Amino acid sequence: MFEARHTMDAPTTASADNGTSGGGGGGWFTPRQQPATTPDSEREAAEGSRRAAMRPTGRTSADTDGDQTAQDARQSPPPVQPASAASASPPPHPPSAARPQATDPSVPQPLSADLLVPAQRSTAPAAQPHEPSAQVRAESASPDALLIRRTMTEVAPIADKVTSYFYALLFVRHPDLRSLFPAAMDTQRDRLLRALLTAAEHIDNTDVLVAYLQNLGRGHRKYGTRAEHYPAVGECLIGALSKYAAGIWDAEMEAAWVRAYTTISQVMIDAAAADELRSPAWWYAEIVAHELRTPDVAVVTVRPDQPYPFLAGQYTSLETPWWPRIWRHYSFASAPRSDGLLTFHVKAVPAGWVSNALVHRARPGDIIRLGPPTGSMTVDHTTDSGLLCLGGGTGIAPIKALVEDVAEHGERRPVEVFYGARTDHDLYDIDTMLRLQQSHPWLSVRAVIDQQAQLQLPDAIREYGPWNEFDAYLSGPPGMIRSGVDALRNIGIPSERIRHDSVEELVTTGD
Ligand SMILES: NC(=O)C1=CN([C@@H]2O[C@H](COP(=O)(O)OP(=O)(O)OC[C@H]3O[C@@H](n4cnc5c(N)ncnc54)[C@H](O)[C@@H]3O)[C@@H](O)[C@H]2O)C=CC1
């Protein structure tokens, strides 16, 4: 894995650690022999060497000081900001009603083994992690990977404690980083830690990991993440792990984590630095249309302040003015349009801060912020395979974009859409889909309504087919994607022909 960094695009702005990351306080490493009672001086020494080890290798030291915020710190370490990018700091949100609601967020996700899969939301075949059996994994794993997995197994049952402690450490020792995170650290609070642990666990899976981390590094630009934040995060990560895996923690294990984290942060820093040359860190976008389709589903159309290139089937992250630094993912509901407008389908979910704001509060004229496009649930135009599309609820949004994409390419490949909903009232976009069907003879749209069909969306595909000449696209609630993938595999569609966004991301960002 460690050679991965050599395959990266040459960054132009990566900076060396400038020493600001160290923060104050003693070390956290508690070697196995001296668990919680390690004298301060020893802990400080260990801390010092760890800190040094985790400094990303900057190619230039164009780093600046500056108080960029970065939600990133929450998710992972930040890219270096070149002097010129200092102005790209987190966006004073354009004026808009900022009347916070008191809402109760959902609970943090446990760091269960199930969740620790690469979290790229879109998983095109090429980017899908290959998960060999546990035995094969153990046999082929590097020594560092084995040590990391041992740590993970040890802390999995107490993941919540590790998470809380990690953030407590981060904010106590680096109070300046607190402003990078939302005021309420709830549903999102473990995203940084989860991303780091996910990456570490896949440290041997270079291709997937590098792609994942590059995406993560680029995505963190919108938070204002800076290179010097990375060592601070790394220290606290290891501080939390060493405390809660104290029974097995030793110098060897710490060294493995330091190596892994150093690699992880370097890949992210490099990717962010390269991205700075091509793209803004975020876009402002004005809401130009807001249509309430059901009492809790809105179709929201925005105009970005500058061109926003993306592909049909991708998604973005979105921040509203009412909940600063809380970002949620939404798929684009249309293929790129000549007028540059972007549309999202938003369902207000209970306790969903962003979704409720977008559905019930947002109005034309409000300004939101968009992160970069991401995701690889896109159409491969080099083949003429059919597309089998399952869209559940608002998951129909990217499916509609895919249909438009095929139409715009003038292709005559069959596209079969199954549009699932709980009741017929929930089929808020059926008219659009039926209009598309009328215009395009290669398109077939079938509504699958739970109440009427007595079966859920994925089951319906078994009654049609054969699907062996089709690529499958799934979009919708996590449960639908999981059972949809099972159903598709059961009818013989190979995994590499099944595309969907990461279930993990859907689980953690569904509000
Ligand atoms: N790119 C993507 O994957 C996108 C995903 N979404 C997600 O889609 C979801 C939409 O929510 P709602 O509209 O409330 O959908 P919903 O809960 O009303 O369900 C929609 C359809 O999915 C099926 N379904 C739900 N759970 C299932 C399960 N466990 N097994 C099999 N089928 C199941 C239902 O039968 C129904 O046909 C949200 O979680 C949202 O985050 C939304 C947009 C894009």
UniProtKB/TrEMBL annotation:
Catalyzed reactions per annotation: 2 nitric oxide + NADPH + 2 O2 = 2 nitrate + NADP(+) + H(+); 2 nitric oxide + NADH + 2 O2 = 2 nitrate + NAD(+) + H(+)
Gene3D superfamilies: Globins (1.10.490.10), Nucleotide-binding domain of ferredoxin-NADP reductase (FNR) module (3.40.50.80), Translation factors (2.40.30.10)
EC number, as in UniProt: 1.14.12.17
InterPro entries recorded: Cbr1-like_FAD-bd_dom, FAD-bd_FR_type, Flavoprot_Pyr_Nucl_cyt_Rdtase, FNR_nucleotide-bd, Globin, Globin-like_sf, Globin/Proto, MRET
Residue stretches making up the FAD-binding FR-type domain: 280-380
Basic and acidic residues bias: start-end ranges: 40-50
Region described as Disordered: 1-141
UniProt name for this protein: nitric oxide dioxygenase
Organism: Streptomyces guryensis
Family statement: In the C-terminal section; belongs to the flavoprotein pyridine nucleotide cytochrome reductase family.
